[in-house]
Every structure is written in C-alpha cells, then in structure tokens.
Design brief:
By secondary structure, the chain is an all-alpha fold. The chain is built from nine helices and no strands. The radius of gyration is 18 Å and the shape is globular.
Length: 215
Amino acid sequence: MIEISIFEIVLKGMAIGFLAAAPAGPSGVLVIQRTLNKGRWKGFLTGLGVSVSDAIYIFITMMCLSLVLSYLENPDVALVVKLAGCALLLVFGITTVRNNPLAKSKDVAVKKESLGQFTLTGFLVAIVNPLVVFFYMGLFAFFSLPVDDFGTSLKMETYASVLLGDVCWWFTLSYVINKLRNRFDLRGLWMINRILGTILITAAVGWCTLILIKL
C-alpha cells in the first residue's frame, strides 16, 4: 500500500470536490437564483440536493477509477491514462470558460417550493449530467490519489472528503452571494467561470508538459 497521510487524503479529496462543484452550469445558476430570491439557506439546501447527486457520481467514479488504476503498473497504460486526464481537464477548462450562465438563466425556473423541494430540484438538475464522472476521474488522476491501493477505511475517508469539499462549495457560494446580494449578478458568475476555466486549462497544460518532460 502506498504511504499517504490522512491529512493529505482529506486535503486532496476536498480540493477535488470543491473544484468539481465550482463550474457554474445549470446547478450553479439555480443555487445563485435561489439565494438571491429566497435567501441563503434555501440556496444552500438547493446545493445540498446537487451534492446528493454528486455523491452518487463520486461513488461511481471511485469504482471505475479502481478498475482503471489496476492496469497502471504498465508504463504505456499509465502514460495513456495520464494524458487522458490532461485532455479531460483541458476540455472541462475550455467548456467552463465558454459556459455562459446568462444564457442558461432563462431555462432555470424559480418557483415557490417547500424546503424539501429545494433539495429535490437541486438533485434533479444535477443528476441529468453523468459526464461529471469524467471530470472527477481527471481530478483524481491530477491529484494522484491512488484509491486502488487504499483499504476500505481510506476509501471511505477519501469519499467523505470529496463529498465534504462539494458541500463546502455550495455553502461558500450561497454565503458569498448572500453577502453580495445587492452587487452580484450572473455576469459575476460568468467571470468566475472564466477564472476557474483558465486555472483548469493552465493546470492541464502544465501537467501535460511535466509528463512529456519525464519521457
């Protein structure tokens, strides 16, 4: 088993969850609209619904990743997987930069709902996007979390850490939007998308460069 500290697992896991949740697609737009129109906690409850969906996809990712990582002892396979991870990060970075929440806001309805319905609608908006699994795979590879070598306990801690990072994003987003209620609009979210997308693109290019240098 590869030696790795619990602190490193938690830190990397939370970073994966935070970064995976941050790109503002329909889920992000819905949480922001709920926060602006209904208040911070109703926005956060919507984000929790998204996290329930993400919990399912994180589990699927970890199971699939275990199967993929079992072949990484072959240097050629390892190289292909790493380059694929770079490509995935690059694609998601470009998609995030190009993602325009202003255009999507018209498709997200804000209706009068109970507290449970806030969470349910957040879940339903997020669950229809299974492609997030590939984003999680790219982030797991990028942060070098060898879940295939982990025992059950470490896998559970990794899973919990990623999910915690996901929840922290929605808590942070609803808190910030609520504080900036009178100054924030969807154009600000568009700028966040561009910044985050640029970070992902830079990370993908840098990671690919390091891989090629080591060949």
